[in-house]
Write a structure and sequence with these properties.
elongated, alpha+beta, 28 helices, seven-stranded mixed β-sheet, six-stranded mixed barrel
């Protein structure tokens, strides 16, 4: 057995080795038998004929010897590979159409997979990331899900939980600011974290060290991106101090590429505070002061590492017990709240998971349509090759060998398409990253790596099999006698039905994808038609941080009065105001509230979003006053505290009662603990346009001045053009102030729907591509039908058939195939509606307008695709057709 296998391997390495010796030996046997026959009295010719007959077919013997000396399966595949390449080289048009179609389908799939893999599937860039969890609190009765946690509660959990091996905290708000670097003010984003968070994540620094317990607030660790942008990747940055006074910062470490913390899903505010959620540096989050009892300040995202060998479920059970003890110990702030653990990977990608999977499914549908088109092309080519295949079968080729030949040809086409697809993916992937919404996590990790290449290879093999199996089975079952008699000029009824089925299939797939695109488009229009509660035109927004020397409320109020007086004097400025949270920013700053006379027990107070109105905020935003009055100069620091509420707050807390003049009790997060309601404003969409307004309460800045308000400035002209003059006016008041995050409200509104725009644009593009491929499929099949039935149509015309009738017959055939596909596609789309329903707003997944519109468009596309093939019937000459046949 070993010798036989060695001979086979040697035969593969030296396919012609030993053939001459075997041929000479075989010839010697023939000569010996011939000589014996001559001595027996036969003529030389008869003697040789008898010798050959006794030995058998020389070619068969030689082929059997080759089989014993090599690996026939590999050799046959190699032969089919060479034959496929030569055959495709002779039919360049067919090969180019197939390769480009597959390259388009494989390329877009590889590009989308590059993004989806980095965002959803790849492990987080931490040590043993599967052991990392985030811990959140929730209180369903007061609409708080996945809420942040107070430092005191988190520290108690770290001490009492036995299933975790470390716990770290991150301030759930990114801190924007401006720092002087090389003599210029640079806008930066910072995050406050505990030193323990780096130990929990287990990611060592690239240079220097991470934060340590006891570090003062001037110590920072910078990100890899910030290090590259501002310091050119200089390792000597460690130990360098930039800025002075309160803004002085000393770099102690640089984190490696890809290190991210926090992810946008761990923040309470992103868009409204900063233009980007990318963190440039981390600063120490100081421990609470001894005796601190501010457990109600839920402002921190918690990250913990589960111990080795402990499951996530066991950690959840441990967390439940530990939190129950905290709720019993502190019922005033923890009563009614619960804690739950979420794997960090799930937390990081949760906001974009459904959208990414929808994109991956959409490009998968495009690839299926491309495969169906190529399969139809190969079926059509099989019709033209019927005589060739019949001859091969007649000469002894087995059905399995004919099937193998067609499959190898399909794999050659798909492999070539994959090579071009990878080139397309390398170009399209960076474009997708640039177009992705700013809040998409892990975009910095997107690359066309080995995983993407392996995915592309797997897709190429699957496509090669998909496009060749049906044509290959047809080739293996070719009727030899009839094919040789007909000369391969026509296809059987079975092949025609198969081609029609494939066309109906790709039409159905196009319907599924186009309905999805239509639903997303109509949903997007519904979102845009939502009234945000203010006028977004001619509004400029920016954030200013009050210098440290304004260290009292009185000094801050005086500074604001000077600032607004100067800004209102700028030519083109209509009104000026500010707040601590801008609309459409995804904010979640809350306070506990209770109505005088209806104060609930501790731990059961409802919560409302809490904001401060600065100067003429409601006037600058054009927020309507529904009832009562607005804030005035009389509502100063020494006057009785007052608040304004929105309609959602009034409806929830007062119902049909008049809220004006009622007293409210506010929680510890508000500088005003009891105030009188003086006015009700219209509802604003603070989360997103597609999220309903929630109860909100406002205090005036004179009774609680903020330290870093967001200004809104209404202008008469283009607000973006007025930014330089407004910055100059701010510098006139205090040269130390550098405004940050200068954007128009229109930009904020655009950013709030960027995820919808991104998803809708890509799915719509894939839907249009599916429509084009479906039209090409209908066109190709009808063209082939007309070409195959030219003789039949010539006979019909000769017998008196109407040319228009034949044209109508071809068009009806196209519309019938399309109608079948449309009906099947609608059924499938309705079955898949749960996958897209959570992306919709204002319409249902079974929206009849969208479904009817898509069906009408597909029928029109099919009609347009049928026009050219059908018109060729009019050019059929009955006499010439009959003469040629």
């Amino acid at each position: 057995m070993l010798r036989a296998w060695l001979l086979r391997v040697l035969g593969v390495v030296r396919p012609r080795g030993g053939e001459q010796d075997f041929a000479e030996e075989l010839q010697s046997h023939i000569d010996l038998h011939t000589a014996d026959n001559i001595r027996a009295g036969m003529t030389p010719d008869e003697a040789r004929r008898r010798a050959l007959a006794k030995l058998g077919s020389v070619a068969a013997v030689q082929e059997a010897q080759r089989d014993r000396r090599g690996l026939p399966a590999l050799e046959s595949i190699a032969q089919d590979l060479r034959y496929a390449i030569r055959g495709l080289a002779r039919t360049r048009g067919f090969a180019l159409a197939c390769v480009m179609t597959l390259a388009l389908g494989i390329g877009v799939n590889s590009a989308i997979f590059s993004v989806v893999n980095a965002v959803l599937f790849a492990p987080l860039p931490y040590e043993r990331p599967e052991q990392l969890i985030t811990i959140w609190t929730s209180h369903p009765e007061i609409r708080r899900e996945a809420n942040a946690m107070s430092r005191e509660n988190a520290l108690d959990l770290a001490r009492t939980m036995t299933t975790i091996d470390g716990l770290g905290m991150v301030q759930a708000n990114i801190i924007p600011g401006t720092v002087p670097i090389n003599g210029e003010g640079v806008t930066v984003n910072g995050a406050q974290v505990t030193a323990s968070v780096f130990d929990v994540l287990g990611t060592p620094p690239l240079h220097g060290r991470t934060l340590q317990r006891g570090d003062d607030p001037s110590v920072i660790v910078i990100s890899h991106g910030f290090w590259q942008r501002q310091f050119g990747g200089d390792p000597g940055v460690v130990g360098r101090t930039f800025g002075q006074g309160r803004t002085a910062a000393r770099v102690v470490g640089v984190m490696p590429r890809g290190f991210t913390l926090p992810y946008p899903s761990m923040l309470q505010a992103t868009v409204s505070f900063v233009a980007s959620s990318e963190v440039d540096f981390w600063i120490p989050l100081l421990d609470p002061k001894p005796g601190s009892t501010d457990r109600g300040a839920r402002m921190h995202a918690v990250v913990a590492r589960v111990k080795d060998g402990v499951s996530i479920d066991a950690a959840r059970a441990d967390l439940t017990n530990a939190w129950r003890a905290l709720a019993d110990a502190y019922p005033d702030v923890n009563g009614g709240w619960s804690a739950h653990a979420v794997p960090l990977h799930q937390q990081a990608v949760a906001p974009v998971r459904s959208g990414m999977l929808l994109l991956l499914g959409s490009v998968g549908v495009v690839l299926l349509i491309a495969c169906v088109n190529v399969a139809n092309l190969m079926l059509a080519r099989g019709v033209a090759r019927q005589r060739e295949l019949a001859l091969r079968a007649a000469l002894g080729a087995k059905r399995s060998r004919l099937l193998q030949q067609v499959i190898v040809e399909g794999l050659v086409l798909s492999g070539s398409g994959a090579l071009f697809g990878l080139l397309l993916a390398r170009w399209a992937t960076p474009l997708l990253v640039r177009l992705s919404p700013a809040g998409t996590p892990r975009l910095a990790e997107v690359t066309t790596d080995v995983t993407v290449v392996m995915f592309t290879m797997a897709v190429a093999v699957a496509c090669g099999m998909a496009v060749s199996v049906l044509p290959g089975l047809g080739a293996a079952r070719v009727p030899v006698r009839s094919a040789l008699m007909e000369g391969g000029r026509s296809s059987s009824d079975g092949r025609r039905r198969l081609r029609g089925t494939l066309v109906a299939t790709e039409v159905g797939l196009a319907v599924v994808l186009t309905i999805g695109a239509g639903l997303l488009g109509r949903s997007f229009l519904a979102v845009l038609n939502v009234d945000p509660g203010f006028r977004a035109d001619h509004l400029l927004t920016m954030q200013v941080s009050v210098p440290a020397r304004y260290d009292t409320n009185e000094k801050r109020i005086t500074f604001y009065e000077q600032l607004f007086q100067r800004l209102e004097a700028v030519p083109g400025v209509v009104s000026v105001g500010g707040t601590t949270r801008l609309p459409l920013g995804g904010t979640n700053s809350t306070t506990q509230v209770a109505v005088e006379g209806r104060v609930p027990p501790d731990g059961q107070w409802p919560e409302a979003d809490f904001r401060r109105a600065v100067h003429d905020y409601f006037g600058a935003m054009n927020i309507p006053l529904r009832r009562g009055r607005g804030f005035t100069d009389a509502d100063h620091a020494k006057a009785p505290p007052v608040v304004m509420i929105n309609e959602a707050f009034a409806q929830r807390m007062f119902g049909d009662e008049d809220p004006i003049g009622r007293q409210l009790h506010l929680g510890a997060s508000s500088p005003v603990r009891q105030a009188t309601v003086i006015g009700v404003i219209g509802d604003l969409r603070h989360q997103r346009l597609d999220v309903a307004a929630v109860p909100e309460v406002y205090i005036t800045y004179r009774q609680g001045p903020p330290v870093a308000p967001l200004l809104v400035i209404r202008t008469a002209d283009d607000p973006a053009r007025m930014a330089p003059s407004i910055r100059a006016a701010i510098r006139d008041v205090d040269a130390a102030i550098v405004p940050t995050n200068i954007r128009t409200m229109h930009d904020l509104r655009t950013a709030s729907v960027s995820e919808r725009v991104f998803l809708m644009a890509l799915v719509t593009a894939f839907g249009l591509l599916a429509l084009v491929l479906a039209a090409v499929g209908v066109y190709g099949v009808l063209t082939l039908v007309v070409a195959e039935r030219t003789r039949e149509m010539g006979i019909r015309l000769a017998l008196g058939a109407s040319p228009r009738g034949l044209v109508g017959h071809v068009v009806r055939q196209a519309l019938l195939l399309t109608a079948v596909g449309v009906v099947a596609g609608i059924v499938v789309a309705l079955g898949l509606s749960p996958l897209v329903s959570h992306q919709l707003f204002g319409i249902g997944a079974a929206d009849p307008v969208t479904i009817a519109g898509v069906a009408g468009v597909l029928l029109l596309v099919a009609l347009a695709a049928a026009v050219v093939p059908a018109s060729r019937v009019l050019r059929v000459d009955p006499v010439s057709t009959l003469r040629c046949n």
